């Protein structure tokens, strides 16, 4: 009876997938899986032929989509057959939908590798149905408080998943404390592979306005960072217990040259010692995606020449860093995950690298993809705005009818004079573009939600 139910769910999912491909392309990454799981809640466990040693899960708060898509691109560049969820549907229905597209009518998996981006909250349940041989953790940080609460809640879920998997190869971010501490919970028979980034010229500010500290995930003492490549990511140690980053992780990106767009990789093995790669995405947070991809490819026997070509041809998800022109101004958009201080800090650090005169336009908005809708701006108080202020901003624009005054207050707390801040208590894109057009400089940096950016870009055209 279970086989009949599975086959019925598989056929229904395939029919839905074909229908979505023609009529609703944006629904095809999730809806077929949702239907299949309603017909057979154990659908994932019934797919045959998925090899554990060739199953890779990539999870974490930030960077998992980019790292997943980069790794899949590299594996395919090496001629390997891969099933993945490149569209970012990373919960159970999305995983089911990816398998439906890559399974025969008899329910047998027809690819060699299964490489999936997995929602960090869903990891525990998905890994019970599909056992990964490799689990990659990018980082565990603050995100979606209305859904996840404190990051330690997610940490407990990932820790439980790690401790429940046999013979696991755990790829961990050497410089992110919560990820690094997971090595303590891997079961016998498992192993760890560490990846990281050496200190480089684009570091994140250690000092902030409110003295925010990060507790040790093991003993809860305040951690000490000797430097930070990103917010709460860098060389660290705990003064109370033995948790610390390794001076030399298994795979480390070093000698980052942002002017010539290149970096070096060193490893404990022999395949990737002192190999130079092109850096097509010259931002500090991208380096950890490159580092994870290097470690994964090296461990699976993909050579540096193939990987170098893959890096050259990889195109990241649209909307992370883009620009458009308006009335002679260049508007550079940096996407953040609202409610996520680390991505905001990374954006601020990137803007700070530009020491020329500029305008900083910020429009936090209501996040309405999850009930309850969310418009809190507490995450801005975890970030350091002072280096931005000292980098040559001539004007600040706070826009949006919901939280423009909250953003104004945050800038005032950081020391920005009130007469340098223009308030636009409106969601009218024409008025926002008008304020941008009236700026003296043509160098505009924009932070807002992706949908608002797309409206502004469309109207500017």
Summarize this structure as a short list of keywords or feature phrases.
single chain; alpha/beta; Protein-Tyrosine Phosphatase, Chain A; 2 domains; six-stranded mixed beta sheet; 17 strands; globular
In total, the number of domains comes to: 2
- The CATH topology assignment of the largest domain is UDP-N-acetylmuramoyl-L-alanine:D-glutamate ligase
CATH homologous superfamily classification of the largest domain: Mur-like, catalytic domain
Distance between the termini: 57 Å
CATH hierarchy, class of the largest domain: Alpha Beta
Mean pLDDT: 91
Tell me the radius of gyration.
Answer: 23 Å
Tally of helical segments: 16
Label the overall shape.
globular
How much helical structure, as a percent, in the residues? 25-40%
For the biggest β-sheet, the strand order reads 2-3-1-4-5-6-9-10-11
Oligomeric form: single chain
Main beta sheet: 9 strands, mixed
Structural class: alpha/beta
Low-confidence stretches: none
Proportion of residues in extended strands:
15-25%
Number of strands: 17
Write up what this structure looks like.
The longest helix is centred in the first third of the chain and has 22 residues, at 2-23. The mean pLDDT is 91. Helix 5 (92-101) links the parallel strand 2 (82-83) and strand 3 (113-117). The strands form 3 sheets. Strands 2-3-1-4-5-6-9-10-11 form a 9-stranded mixed sheet. The protein has a 6-stranded mixed sheet with strand order 12-13-17-14-15-16, sandwiched between helices. Strands 7-8 form a two-stranded antiparallel ribbon. It has 2 domains: 50-88 and 111-313, Mur-like, catalytic domain (UDP-N-acetylmuramoyl-L-alanine:D-glutamate ligase); 321-460, Mur ligase, C-terminal domain (Protein-Tyrosine Phosphatase, Chain A, Alpha-Beta Complex), CATH 3.90.190.20. 34% of the residues lie in helices and 18% in strands. It has helices at 2-23, 31-39, 43-46, 64-77, 92-101, 123-129, 145-148, 151-163, 177-181, 286-299, 304-313, 341-353, 386-389, 404-413, 429-437, 450-460, and strands spanning 55-59, 82-83, 113-117, 134-137, 169-173, 191-197, 224-225, 236-237, 251-257, 262-267, 275-278, 321-326, 329-334, 358-363, 393-399, 421-424, 443-448. It is globular. With 461 residues, the protein is of the alpha/beta class. The chain contains 16 helices and 17 strands.
């Amino acid at each position: 009876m279970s086989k009949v139910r599975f086959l019925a769910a598989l056929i229904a999912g395939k029919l839905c997938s074909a229908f979505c491909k023609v009529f609703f392309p944006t629904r095809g990454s999730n809806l077929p899986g949702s239907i299949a799981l309603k017909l057979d809640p154990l659908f994932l466990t019934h797919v045959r032929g998925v090899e554990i040693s060739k199953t890779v899960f990539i999870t974490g708060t930030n960077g998992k989509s980019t790292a997943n898509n980069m790794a899949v691109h590299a594996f395919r560049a090496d001629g390997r057959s891969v099933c993945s969820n490149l569209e970012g549907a990373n919960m159970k229905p999305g995983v089911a939908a990816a398998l439906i597209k890559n399974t025969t009518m008899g329910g047998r998996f027809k690819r060699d590798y299964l490489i999936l981006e997995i929602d960090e909250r869903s990891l525990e349940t998905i890994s019970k149905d599909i056992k990964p041989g490799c689990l990659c953790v990018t980082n565990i940080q603050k995100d979606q408080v209305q859904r996840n609460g404190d990051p330690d809640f997610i940490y407990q879920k990932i820790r439980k998943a790690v401790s429940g998997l046999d013979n696991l190869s755990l790829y961990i971010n050497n410089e992110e404390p919560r990820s690094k501490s997971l090595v303590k919970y891997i079961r016998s028979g498992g192993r760890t592979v560490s990846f990281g980034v050496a200190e480089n010229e684009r570091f994140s500010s250690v000092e902030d306005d409110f003295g925010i500290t990060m507790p040790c995930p093991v003993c809860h003492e305040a951690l000490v960072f000797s430097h930070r490549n990103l917010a709460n990511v860098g060389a660290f140690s705990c003064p109370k217990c033995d948790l610390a980053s390794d001076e030399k992780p298994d795979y480390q990106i070093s000698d980052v040259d942002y002017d010539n767009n290149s970096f070096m990789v060193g490893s404990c093995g022999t395949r990737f010692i002192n190999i130079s790669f092109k850096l097509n995405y010259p931002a500090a947070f991208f380096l950890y995606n490159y580092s994870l991809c290097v470690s994964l490819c090296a461990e699976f026997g993909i050579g540096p020449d193939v990987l170098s070509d893959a890096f050259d041809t990889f195109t990241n998800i649209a909307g992370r860093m883009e620009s458009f022109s308006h009335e002679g101004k260049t508007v550079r958009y940096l996407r953040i995950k609202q409610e996520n201080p680390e991505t905001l800090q990374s954006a601020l650090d990137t803007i700070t690298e530009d020491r020329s005169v500029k305008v900083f336009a910020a429009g936090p908005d209501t996040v309405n993809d999850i009930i309850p809708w969310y418009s809190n701006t507490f995450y801005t108080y975890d970030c350091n705005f002072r280096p931005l202020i000292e980098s040559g901003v001539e004007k600040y624009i706070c826009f949006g009818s919901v939280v423009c005054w909250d953003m104004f207050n945050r800038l005032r707390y950081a020391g920005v004079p009130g007469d340098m801040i223009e308030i636009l208590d409106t969601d009218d894109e024409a008025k926002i573009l008008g304020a941008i057009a009236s700026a003296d400089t043509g160098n505009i940096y924009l932070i807002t939600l992706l949908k608002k950016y797309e409206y502004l870009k469309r109207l500017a055209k």
